[in-house]
Amino acid sequence: MKTNLIGGKSLEQWLVDYPLLKDLIEPIEIFWGNPQYDKSSCGIPISEKEDIQDASRRLERFAPYLAEVFPETAESNGIIESPLLSIQAMQKRMEELESIELKGKLLIKCDSHLPISGSIKARGGIYEVLKHAEDIAIKHGLIDLTDNYKAFDGSDFKDLFSQYSIAVGSTGNLGLSIGIVGAQMGFKVTVHMSSDAKQWKKNLLRNKGVNVKEYASDYSKAVEEGRSQAAADPTCYFIDDENSKDLFLGYAVAASRLRKQLEGLKITVDENHPLFVYLPCGVGGGPGGVAYGLKAEFGDHVHCFFAEPTQSPCFLIGQMTGLYDSVSVQDFGLDNKTEADGLAVGRPSRFVGRKMGHLLSGCYTIEDQRLYSFLHHLAVTENLYLEPSALAGFYGPILLENHPVGLNYLKEHNLEGILRNGHHLIWGTGGNMVPHEIMEEYFNKGTRI
Ligand SMILES: *Cc1c(COP(=O)(O)O)cnc(C)c1O
């Protein structure tokens, strides 16, 4: 009889070795503390920190251009950044609903309201397009690092870029970011969309002249197709969400800017003032890049947790089993079907898993129903409207302060006594571009739950 092995082992053996997998494949919500968590973040090499600073400077060079062509960034002088807010009313609501008290104070990072494309992908995705454009322009002698980058809006640049194409595979938001900026700069852009991608995202891109290809299969397939089609065309640049260092660096820039925002709110992060950060995770690139930047910036005083849907915990499975990208959620019998479209990814990024997996404090899974409930309560208490994926972080503070795994983490890292001085930062990853009537449906659904 043929038995189906997963990474060389039977399912029964996996369940013996990692008992938490039993709940994970049920699936019911789990909270996993990372046994490999390594407090060596101060050991992030100087060269890597310099790469992040280099990315930050590149975004500054492009700021005059962005302010010119995307007027919504003019107010911030062309810097694509989002608000950091204290959300006391939502905290009170969560405490009432769960009959708990949260010692740390709740903050939200509103990447849901990032200009240009309204999601965390406006960090990495736009950065990589800009970097690619800069590389081409320098190679053709059109620009120098010290020039004013407003020049990128000129017809000479657009004519040049029209001879090049960019391709990407996406569940929706990455395609949106890359499509909007790529098309604005003059590139021919093709976005390979997974079956989860929302119709309105495809329509919006087509209206901007982007070529949208649709697949009946999931995200990994869309990426694979995009990669192989792009490989056949030497003028085509493939933005590889599963492997790209540039995407990663674009996300990582968030951390130094967050430090300034925290200072603006008079919030300290140090050995007596911990910062806990909760990031919704799909393939791992966005949350991985941000978390890596945070570890480079705040070292051991920041604690990062990833949140995934119960049906799509690809990063958690990859880290827990040590199989990284050689395992998919489907291998463990999950179907990768979730209403959190931005997180509907069945196989994690190898690059991110290996690069920062050991810097991650833990991962948890969350049911779709709970996402809608948070969506409703956040809208009512704070008048903030996020898409379902973007709410996955809200469960984190509740788990950290009440779940046995969370309590154990606090104890092990001597955080119990200083929790009261600390902050829970929920990374709100998307929502501002969602059409009004669709957001209304989300909200109503959350109201019914
Ligand atoms: C893409 C996305 C994420 C997760 O980013 P990954 O790089 O796929 O891990 C989280 N939230 C939203 C809204 C997203 O679009």
UniProtKB/TrEMBL annotation:
The keyword Lyase applies. InterPro entries: D_Ser_am_lyase (IPR011780), Ser/Thr_Dehydratase (IPR050147), Ser/Thr_deHydtase_PyrdxlP-BS (IPR000634), TrpB-like_PALP (IPR001926), TrpB-like_PALP_sf (IPR036052). Keywords: Lyase, Pyridoxal phosphate. Its EC number is 4.3.1.18. Residues 99-396 form the Tryptophan synthase beta chain-like PALP domain. It comes from the Bacteria. It is an enzyme of class 4 (lyase). Its cofactor is pyridoxal 5'-phosphate. Pfam families: PALP. It catalyses: D-serine = pyruvate + NH4(+). Belongs to the serine/threonine dehydratase family. DsdA subfamily. One of its GO terms (molecular function) is hydro-lyase activity. One of its GO terms (biological process) is isoleucine biosynthetic process. Gene3D superfamilies: 3.40.50.1100. The modification N6-(pyridoxal phosphate)lysine is found at K121. HAMAP family: D_Ser_dehydrat. This is Probable D-serine dehydratase. The keyword Lyase applies.
